[in-house]
From TrEMBL, chain A:
<dbReference type="InterPro" id="IPR036322">
    <property type="entry name" value="WD40_repeat_dom_sf"/>
</dbReference>
<keyword id="KW-0677">Repeat</keyword>
<protein>
    <recommendedName>
        <fullName>Serine-threonine kinase receptor-associated protein</fullName>
    </recommendedName>
</protein>
<dbReference type="GO" id="GO:0071541">
    <property type="term" value="C:eukaryotic translation initiation factor 3 complex, eIF3m"/>
</dbReference>
<dbReference type="GO" id="GO:0003723">
    <property type="term" value="F:RNA binding"/>
</dbReference>
<dbReference type="Pfam" id="PF24805">
    <property type="entry name" value="EIF3I"/>
</dbReference>
<keyword id="KW-0648">Protein biosynthesis</keyword>
<dbReference type="InterPro" id="IPR027525">
    <property type="entry name" value="eIF3i"/>
</dbReference>
<dbReference type="InterPro" id="IPR001680">
    <property type="entry name" value="WD40_rpt"/>
</dbReference>
Automatic annotation (TrEMBL), chain B:
<comment type="function">
    <text>Component of the eukaryotic translation initiation factor 3 (eIF-3) complex, which is involved in protein synthesis and, together with other initiation factors, stimulates binding of mRNA and methionyl-tRNAi to the 40S ribosome.</text>
</comment>
<dbReference type="Pfam" id="PF08662">
    <property type="entry name" value="eIF2A"/>
</dbReference>
<dbReference type="InterPro" id="IPR034363">
    <property type="entry name" value="eIF3B_RRM"/>
</dbReference>
<dbReference type="GO" id="GO:0003743">
    <property type="term" value="F:translation initiation factor activity"/>
</dbReference>
<comment type="subunit">
    <text>Component of the eukaryotic translation initiation factor 3 (eIF-3) complex.</text>
</comment>
<keyword id="KW-0396">Initiation factor</keyword>
<dbReference type="InterPro" id="IPR015943">
    <property type="entry name" value="WD40/YVTN_repeat-like_dom_sf"/>
</dbReference>
<dbReference type="InterPro" id="IPR035979">
    <property type="entry name" value="RBD_domain_sf"/>
</dbReference>
<dbReference type="GO" id="GO:0031369">
    <property type="term" value="F:translation initiation factor binding"/>
</dbReference>
Length: 327, 731
């Protein structure tokens, strides 16, 4: 596997996201840029200029527009083909995470606990029929009841949201009533990433307690546990092949005191939980990583601003591990 | 205007003097002679004189001898003293003391009279309750394991667990307990007991479930040391033993004697749990007073001692050295005294310490030499006296062999483990007195009058180690040049062997010499033949050596080695170098087949856990254990097999090996079956989950992920792809 290294950001990378077809991927960084690249070769297609540090990005399924949140307490929207800003909106505290609902009728924004504002999930009804003139209306505000929210994601039915919390718990929220249907503390330390499977029926969480968990969205119970030797910042599910990739690294503050950074991507078997291998390369903690929707490549972005794009070799697809003979 | 009288009641209450109720300064003396009135004055005079000699009686009314109506004395006297201390001293001195042939004095505190005449104190005799006999658990139960596995204890965060160790599967838990110890755990030298440390003292655990088999109430004991046979146990605390508790019931439970007060080291009998003797800490450390701290002996602290708070001043430990048969133990008690004690009386041999002027260090021989227990010690150069190394017979304290040296800066003595040889490593000043070099002086204890062979080196030896049960040794040295800082890879690792072919005339020769090495630590496998050299610093490294390599006849140059002389029975091969990030500790298992390297959070590692290596340097297992504090192999007692039986096994090793291989294979297949079963279950439950999901998504008109993208015939096939709209872009 030969990685393509992209110096996309001058400051830490915060999120990476492929579009639906997987021909493009987007990255956000603390330097305020939202970049677009070709997945094939990593060439940059363009940049959306936001204000402050960019934290999160999402793309609609037709790759018509992107939505992004920034530290300037703003949520932006741009059209993809010409990079034109079509919408911006102020929030009361920093929006850490944005995600469009599967039917692109709603937008969720996770805000931080800041300046007397309680961490919340805001749901907006959006009407994108005229892309040049989007209509956005606040539908619901879901205040945190326990620990502050970190990220949230829609489930397959588009009627529930799975949210992760700073204390390591996960909750399932009904997006129509705003009611918390179930909450469970599954990590000992802060839960920092949540990524859904392709059909949004199960998800993986990554935690600073050095573990990643796989749960089904229906009952959010821990089904699989992946043990690492460093605190994780991100975990993702590979489509097609049954693996879970996870990455992270020791805290930035203790990097100088230990000689081995171990900023590696861990490969786990999704079903058997076994640690299958590692892939090194980064010089700083891996902040976020995500896998191509067809499972052909993955990208990882780190604290030092570099993005690494890895296309899987044919041997990756031919490799089988411990699958029972009956399979 | 009349002034109202001021009310002082509140102040009076505040400063009211309480009448003395404790009666601690009062003493009752019973058993005094009963005399008629005429003789009372004489008796008063006698008693006053006898008692007043020890402590003054309070004047003027401190002495009161009641009389009956006829004026006869009643046989008892009340005394008052100036201080409680005086009263206590009098009780100690005069209780049960004979005044004359007929009269024995009974002295006690007056307070006790009231206490025991209290109607609440029952006068009925009650049979003391005898604890029913509780048999000890099987102390050696782990040796009966059908697979002959070794155990190790792991201290993880607050939990102590004992595990069966396997070379090819994860350690299996045999026992686990949370909060078993306040600081650390330690094995006894033969593995029978697991010791836990508590504020109240030390506790021994044994048996398959590690139940408590003994408590040793030495308050805040920090360090322990067993005798080699596990019969005796030293405990040491920073806090001196305090005065006995005042309360009678508590005092009855107090295990120490008055004379023990103030001592810090206690020697216990492990079986009866009674303290046998106590010692002061004995802070005399010759190396503190000696001029050359660079080459001071490294005091071998127990690994466990590292867990203790390191900000406190280290205690010199072990304080005593034992002979291997546990008959004697000794320490350097002061500048000129070597105190040798004898078991089981725990008293000094010949009731006095051996006078050795300026003794620096001593080592007991690890085995008897000609039926005698020997020890070696050395004294430095002082004034017009040369430095000396002496061999002493412990029982008679006579010097058997005596050698002098000049220009010695430091010495260390290394006994071969069967006491056949003794090597004295003498670090000496070069002629210009600017550098140091080493001369190795090897005593042959297996020959008459113990001849000495001297190997003078150019280099300074840092580390020396005899091969267990062998006559070969390895040492690490470097060239000590003035004004030169020792760089990282300047050390030399050399191997020495005895020319056996020449019989008694044979001498030790350097057979292999590996220069420009970076190493500072030597560890032989407990069975000999294999040596491990290591770097123990921030970038730990291990190097494995085999000194009896079959394929090598001793003449082939391997990795910079000099050609070995053919007559030397040694063939060294470097088996490999391994980096070992974060290693803080390492130890061979009791069988000498495996090496465990430990990364413990006590040593500030970033990746706690342990690795298991085989003797050839192959990594067998790596276990990551978060918050691992300590890992210790459980020691095994010495083998009870006779020499003939052992030889027989060696001869038939192939038949045994076949049997063990078959057992290993059976176990492996069993384990892989287990794993396969687990995987099959995981697979089945996943398939069930996906089938359920597919059905539900199908009803909702959604596409499950399996139907979206597939890997087919070496290609990624995207199944679900709908064309919504085609737009021609104008560029």
């Amino acid at each position: 596997m030969r990685p393509i290294v992209i110096k996309g950001h001058s400051r830490p990378v915060t999120q990476l996201k492929f579009n639906r077809e997987g021909d493009l991927f987007f990255s956000t960084g603390r330097d305020g840029l939202v970049n677009v690249y070709y997945s094939e070769n990593g060439d940059m297609l363009g940049t959306f200029q936001s204000k402050g540090a960019a934290y999160s990005v999402d793309i609609d399924p037709t790759t018509t527009f992107v939505v992004s949140s920034t530290s300037g307490m703003k949520v932006f929207m741009w059209t993809v083909k010409d990079g034109k800003e079509i919408f911006s909106m102020d929030t009361k505290s920093t929006p850490r995470f944005v995600e469009l609902s599967p039917n692109v009728k709603q937008l969720l924004v996770v805000t931080e606990e800041q300046m007397g504002q309680t961490s919340s999930i805001f749901l907006y009804d959006i009407d994108m029929s005229d892309v040049q003139n989007p209509q956005v209306a606040e539908n619901k505000m879901i205040l945190r009841k326990t620990s502050p929210f970190i990220k949230a994601s829609w489930t397959y039915d588009g009627k529930h949201i799975i949210a992760i919390h700073r204390d390591g718990s996960v909750s399932k929220i009904n997006s129509e009533s705003g009611e918390v249907e179930k909450e469970a503390k599954i990590h000992e330390d802060s839960c920092v990433d949540l990524q859904m499977s392709k059909d949004r029926t199960y998800f993986v969480t990554a935690s600073r307690d050095k573990t990643a968990h796989l749960c089904y969205v229906d009952d959010i119970e821990v089904r699989k546990t992946y043990l690492g030797d460093v605190p994780f910042n991100s975990a993702a599910i590979t489509p097609v092949k049954d693996y879970v990739v996870a990455g992270g690294g020791i805290d930035a503050k203790s990097v100088t005191t230990s000689s081995d950074g171990r900023f590696q991507v861990h490969f786990f078997h999704k079903l058997f939980e076994d640690d299958l291998g590692r892939l090194g390369g980064h010089f700083g903690p891996i902040n976020h990583m995500t896998v191509h929707p067809h499972g052909t490549c993955f990208v990882s972005g780190s604290e030092d601003g570099y993005i690494r794009l890895n296309h899987f070799d044919p041997s990756y697809f031919e490799f089988t591990y411990g699958v029972p003979s009956s399979a | 205007m009349t002034e109202e009288p001021i009310d002082f009641k509140d102040l009076e209450a505040k400063y009211a003097v309480e009448p003395e109720t404790k009666l601690d300064r009062f003493v009752i003396v019973d058993g005094a002679p009963i005399v008629p009135e005429a003789k009372i004055e004489a008796l008063t005079k006698v008693l006053k004189k006898v008692i007043g000699k020890v402590r003054p009686i309070k004047e003027p009314h401190g002495f009161h001898m009641p009389t009956d109506e006829s004026g006869k004395s009643m046989g008892y006297v009340f005394l008052e003293f100036n201080t409680e201390d005086d009263a206590r001293e009098i009780i100690k001195k005069f209780n049960n003391v004979k005044l004359d042939a007929k009269h024995t004095l009974q002295v006690d505190r007056l307070g006790n009279v009231e206490k025991f005449t209290d109607p609440k104190v029952s006068t009925d005799y009650k049979e003391p309750h005898l604890e029913p006999f509780k048999p000890l658990p099987h102390l050696k139960s782990w040796l009966t394991d059908s697979q002959g596995r070794d155990q190790a204890v792991m201290h993880v965060h607050e939990t102590v667990g004992v595990y069966w160790m396997n070379k090819d599967s994860a350690p299996r838990e045999a026992f686990k307990r949370e909060r078993m110890t306040d600081t650390y755990v330690q094995w006894s030298p033969r593995g029978s007991y697991l010791v836990s440390m508590h504020r109240q003292g030390v506790m021994l655990h044994a048996g398959a479930q590690f139940e408590s088999v003994g408590r040793f109430p030495h308050h805040e004991a920090e360090l322990i040391q067993f005798s080699p046979d596990e019969r005796y146990l030293f405990t040491a605390s920073r806090n001196p033993i305090p005065a006995p508790p005042e309360d009678h019931t508590q005092a009855a439970k107090w295990p120490f004697k008055e004379t023990d007060v103030g001592n810090q080291i206690v020697l216990w009998d492990v079986q009866t749990k009674a303290p046998l003797r106590t010692f002061p800490m004995g802070d005399y450390n010759p190396y503190v007073t000696y001029k050359n701290p660079n080459h001071a002996t490294i005091v071998p602290g127990t690994a466990a001692a590292a867990i203790i708070a390191r900000d406190a001043e280290p205690i010199k430990w072990p304080a005593f050295k034992w002979t291997p048969d546990s008959r004697y133990f000794a320490r350097i008690s002061s500048k000129d005294n070597l105190s040798i004690y004898e078991t089981p009386s725990m008293s000094l041999v010949d009731k006095k310490s051996a006078k050795i002027s300026g003794i620096m260090d001593f080592e007991f021989a690890p085995a008897l030499v000609g039926g005698k227990q020997m020890l070696a010690y050395w004294t430095p150069e002082v004034e017009n006296q040369t430095a000396r190394v002496c061999l002493m017979d412990v029982a008679t304290k006579t010097t058997i062999r005596n050698r002098s040296f000049f220009n010695v800066s430091g010495c260390r003595m290394f006994w071969q483990d069967q006491a056949q040889f003794l090597c004295v490593k003498a670090d000496r000043l070069t002629k210009n007195k600017k550098g140091l070099f080493t001369s190795l002086e090897i005593y042959r204890l297996n020959e008459k009058s113990f001849p000495v062979e001297v190997i003078e080196l150019k280099e300074l030896v840092l580390n020396f180690a005899w091969e267990p049960r062998g006559d070969r040794f390895a040492c690490i040295s470097y060239l000590d040049l003035p004004n030169q800082i020792m760089s990282n890879s300047q050390q030399i690792l050399s191997f020495y062997a005895l020319e056996r072919s020449k019989g008694l005339q044979g001498t030790w020769k350097e057979a292999y010499r590996f220069e420009k090495r970076q190493t500072n630590f030597l560890l032989w496998s407990p069975r000999g033949r294999f040596l491990l050299s290591a770097v123990r610093n921030t970038k730990p490294e291990l190097e494995f050596w085999d000194i009896d390599h079959d394929a090598m006849s001793g003449s082939i140059k391997v990795d910079g080695a000099l050609k070995a002389a053919k007559e030397l029975p040694i063939a060294v091969v470097n088996l490999g170098k391994r980096e070992n990030q974060g290693m803080t500790d390492l130890a061979f298992d009791p069988s000498g087949r495996y090496l465990a390297t430990v990364s413990s959070i006590v040593g500030n590692t970033s990746s706690p856990g342990f690795k298991l290596w085989d003797i050839r340097g192959q990594l067998l297992r790596e276990e990551k254990i978060d918050k691992l504090k300590a890992f210790f192999w459980r020691p095994r007692p010495p083998s009870t097999l006779s020499e003939e039986k052992r030889n027989e096994i060696k001869k038939n090793i192939k038949t045994y090996a076949a049997q063990f291989d078959a057992e290993d294979a059976a176990r492996e297949s069993e384990e892989s079956e287990e794993l396969q079963k687990k995987r099959e279950e995981a697979y089945k439950s996943w398939v069930a989950f996906r089938a359920d999901v597919q059905a539900r998504l199908g009803k909702m008109g959604l596409v499950p992920e399996e139907m979206q993208v597939q890997f087919k015939d070496g290609k990624i096939v995207v199944l679900e792809r709908e064309v919504l709209e085609e737009i021609e872009e104008e560029v």
